[in-house]
Automatic annotation (TrEMBL):
It comes from Brassica napus (Rape). This is (rape) hypothetical protein. It comes from the Eukaryota.
């Protein structure tokens, strides 16, 4: 980042000017009521000149602005990919929401992760990709809950971190980093025509985990 190379490039104004000038006298309700000749002095402000006089631009900042260099940027954009066990996705609701109505809402069961498997059912190309590769070629629409083909731009995907203590969800994360194009949770649990009871077991069968068993 630029701020590590030039510490004060975005520090802002660090110069102030103060002057005492004769202004135009004005009357206030206080002076009129008391009858005393108390007058406040109002100085006509020239905001443009004040900005020019008090504006300080360092040599580094002036070069950056003259050559129109980016001060900061992030490229490419990163899509955070969620994962969850079957039927265990998070739902965010407000305290005023009716829980029964929220649960019955159409599409409430759809998530980025489940719709990835739906995408793999209808797209042969999607079945050649791992979950983390999907954002490079498809765009997630959070309103319609659909993955659609990417037309422009570049995005990379990163799966959310899962602690080993999370159990089967941790082993699910290991699997989807390796397996391309699964069309269901059952397909993720299947290896060599054998369906395993959980994701940890299929990770062992595929050789993704080591243990002391001989």
């Amino acid at each position: 980042a630029v701020k590590y190379l030039f510490k004060y490039i975005t520090k802002g104004v660090d110069r102030a000017s103060a002057v005492i000038e004769k202004g135009n006298p004005i009357s206030t309700p206080d002076t009129i009521a008391s009858g005393e000749p108390k007058e406040r002095v109002l100085k006509q402000r020239n905001e443009i000149q004040e900005y020019i006089d008090a504006r300080y631009v360092s040599a580094c900042e002036s070069m950056w602005r003259n050559f129109a260099f980016h001060i900061h940027k992030r490229k490419p954009s990163v899509e955070k990919l969620i994962i969850h066990l079957e039927g265990e996705h998070n739902i965010t609701i407000k305290s005023t929401d009716n829980l029964g109505r929220v649960i019955r809402k159409p599409g409430i069961e759809k998530t980025m992760f489940t719709e990835w498997m739906v995408l793999c059912r209808r797209s042969a190309f999607a079945r050649t990709l791992t979950y983390v590769q999907i954002p490079e070629y498809f765009v997630w629409n959070n309103t319609t809950k659909v993955w659609s083909e990417r037309k422009k731009g570049k995005t990379i995907g990163r799966i959310v971190a899962v602690h080993p203590s999370a159990g089967d969800r941790y082993y699910l994360r290991i699997l989807i980093n390796k397996i391309k194009g699964p069309r269901s949770y059952d397909e993720l649990k299947t290896f060599n025509d054998v369906k395993y009871p959980d994701f940890k077991s299929v990770c062992h069968a595929r050789g993704y985990l080591d243990d002391d068993v001989e």
